[in-house]
Design a protein that fits this description.
By secondary structure, this protein is an alpha/beta fold. The protein is 48% helix and 14% strand. The longest helix has 17 residues.
Length: 352
């Protein structure tokens, strides 16, 4: 692990895993709180790393301290889900030498019902003798190859949202000011940072630079077309948004997120029948298939959200029975969503 000022999270993380691993290595990048003291309750292998605005250098330093056959990595605001502890122990005991890496689902966000809404798959366990390296100053990735085992052991991200951080975008801007050349991955993630900071023109520019390289991961390419579409939706340029969504259809079967974007555009244009078509396509999308692709996925677009929007569409067409039907389907997925409960009350009044 690499950590900085994580005394509030570190105990929760290490308590979820300390009894399942043979050594714990903590690399501190400049904490000013009691992170080190917290870590000392679990391990004596605590090392200092002078921060140089480069996450991959810190992670590679931490990997170089490992001494066991396989390395498992976490962030301080991650936990290994308790119900998967036995699976992890079994994986450890049965891991064969021909396995080079193990990927695991990373649960990024959940709704009020604790249903996962956003997830991605990441390589979490790697064979030390392969000397796999981390790359990238920000949004770093672990480059692995060989025989990769797909596990269903889940890691949950538990970070409390406390506003938008400027840390990553400042590192990218420093790289640009120093004339450092961006990799395609840097372009993609810098575009994401610009989008999050509402700098839409720069976001569009760097998404397009990323796409022009023709060297990006397929899932990032699909996501880029969607993000560019979102930028144009914010700018009320629906035609450009549609064009970029349709570009993603050349790569793979339409994802539910893209279908929901099209539904939103047509709904806002008053083209209700077209909106219904695309929301139905989203609702019929294969969540399990798309999840296995490994990219970031918004489960809401596969479950309750398109049915909620279909309720809106049919209400606008005064077909309140179909509106009620789709609202009921949405409620099965997300029974506490306020907009769904409001629709139910409203439609019950109309339909007695």
């Amino acid at each position: 692990m690499i950590v900085k000022d994580e005394e509030e999270n570190l105990t929760r993380c290490l308590e979820s895993i300390h009894h399942l691993v043979d050594e714990i290595i903590i690399v501190d990048t400049g904490s000013t709180d009691k992170t080190k003291e917290t870590a000392e309750k679990f391990t004596s292998k605590i090392f200092d790393f002078i921060w140089v605005d480069d996450f991959s250098k810190a992670r590679n330093f931490s990997f170089n301290k490992a001494s066991k056959d396989y390395i498992f990595w976490l962030d301080a605001d991650d936990i290994l889900l308790e119900e998967d502890h036995d699976k992890f122990a079994l994986l450890k005991n049965e891991l064969q030498d021909e396995i080079d890496a193990v990927s695991m689902p990373y649960l990024l966000a959940a709704d009020e019902n604790n249903t996962v809404s956003h997830s991605v798959r990441r390589n979490r366990v790697v064979k030390r003798s392969n000397h796999f390296k981390w790359h990238g100053a920000v949004h770093e990735y672990l480059e692995v190859g060989g025989n990769i085992k797909a596990s269903d052991i889940r890691i949950k991200h538990c970070k409390e949202v406390s506003g938008l951080s400027n840390r990553n975008i400042k590192i990218y801007e420093k790289m640009l000011s120093e004339g450092k050349e961006f990799t395609p991955r840097d372009m993609y993630y810098y575009a994401n940072e610009c989008y999050d900071h509402n700098n839409l023109s720069t976001a569009i520019d760097y998404y397009n630079k990323f796409l022009d390289t023709n060297r990006g991961w397929e899932e990032d390419v699909i996501a880029s077309y969607g993000k560019i579409a979102d930028c144009y939706i914010h700018l009320n340029d629906y035609e450009s948004a549609i064009d970029h969504i349709l570009e993603s259809f050349k790569i793979d079967i339409p994802r539910a997120e893209q279908c929901c974007r099209l539904g939103y555009i047509f709904l806002n244009r008053g083209a209700i029948e077209q909106a219904i078509y695309w929301y139905k396509q989203a609702a019929a999308s294969d969540y399990e298939r798309d999840k296995q692709k490994g990219g970031f996925i918004n489960a809401n677009c596969y479950t309750w959200l398109p049915h909620l929007q279909l309720c809106v569409c049919y209400d606008l067409l005064n077909d309140h029975k179909k509106a009620y039907y789709h609202n009921s389907l949405a409620k099965k997925y997300n029974p506490n969503e306020l907009s769904i409960l409001h629709n139910e009350k409203y439609l019950n009044t109309l339909l007695n």
